[in-house]
Amino acid sequence: MTEHIEKEPVRSDEDHGGKPDDVGQNKPFENEVIYNGVAKEITVSKAELISSVLQKAIAAFGNLPAPHTLALYDAEGRELPDGETVHDAKLKKGERLQLRPSTVKAG
Amino acid sequence: MLEQSFSIFRACGANRRECQVYWASSWTDPNCLTHLFHPRHSAGAYGLAINDQWLGEFWSELASRNLGVRVQVHTHPYEAFHSETDDAFPLLFDVGFLSLVIPNFAKGPVGFKDAYLAEIQADGSWAEVPAASRIVVDDQG
Fold first, then answer.
1. What's the domain count of chain A?
2. Do B90 and A63 lie within an 8 Å CB cutoff?
3. Is A106 among the domain residues?
4. Is B44 a domain residue?
5. B117 vs B64, B120, B136, B137, CA distance in Å?
6. What does the alpha-carbon distance between residue A42 and residue A25 come to, in Å, rounded to a whole number?
7. Which A residues 27-86 touch B at CB under 8 Å?
8. Could you tell me the CATH number of the domain that includes residue A87?
9. Regarding beta strands A29-35 and A38-44, do their DSSP bridges make them parallel or antiparallel, or are they unpaired?
10. I want to staple A84 with a disulfide (CB 3.0 to 4.6 A). Which of A24, A71, A88, B114 is the partner?
11. Rounded distance, CA A6 to CA A28, Å?
12. What is the ipTM of this complex?
């Protein structure tokens, strides 16, 4: 016989205090970005636009001379759209992002 | 590494398609090129494009192995030079990143004869530099 026990939901730190609507929504978190074999951490928030995250990632790697050629990709290889928020892009805390060119060609 | 690159160019390009490889080194010794990567790509006689999925996997591999790409090397059907496409769509846009172009689909002797080496400058432009001033080939090639 299987015993079914209803448990109270575990409350995280985010559940304590503050307004329910904004708790956790804009709390900054860390993500790792890799570029040419090097990893750097950047801090992002849920409401932040991907375009802002991209600027942070580029800045983390110093003075890259052609930043317009670069884009951010998630762990599944999906290019993150500039106009979406971190929340909309389903970016998770601790997720490793890639900063890389969207097109590599020669001719 | 140079000989291996020419072998790949000749086999993959089959004297009718361009081909590209990357030369990489460990971040613990960036100036010592030790690894060669042949990307998955589409190619024709006058151009090539790197497969995006491969690029994503490659980016992860570089990080997991503490490697960085220093030089991209590709072939041209005839004369070696840096085309507008080469200027605009390199693997990296880092200051000091090198792009080596090998003429005649790499049918010639292994080495830098008639090759063209370009380097990214601080303002993002490319400048031709003598191969011998940037790349030294040791006994292991």
1. 1
2. no
3. no
4. yes
5. 29, 10, 13, 15
6. 17
7. 34, 36-39, 63-66, 69-70, 73, 77
8. 3.10.20.90
9. antiparallel
10. A88
11. 32
12. 0.92
Residue written as tokens 């990143």? B97
Domain count across chain B: 1
| Domain interval for residue B126 | 2-134
The CATH number assigned to the domain holding B125 equals 3.40.140.10
- Using an 8 Å CB-CB cutoff, list chain A residues near B103: none
* B89/A105 touch (CB, cutoff 8 Å), yes or no: yes
Which residues in B lie closer than 8 A to residue A106 (C-beta atoms)?
18, 20, 47-48, 72, 74, 83, 85-86, 89
Q: Is A10 on the interface with B (CB under 8 A)?
A: no
Asked, for residue A13, whether it belongs to a domain, the answer is: no
Reading chain B (141 residues) residue by residue, the pLDDT tens digits are: 999 999 999 999 999 999 999 999 999 999 999 999 999 999 999 999 999 999 999 999 999 999 999 999 999 999 999 999 999 999 999 999 999 999 999 999 999 999 999 999 988 899 999 998 999 988 666
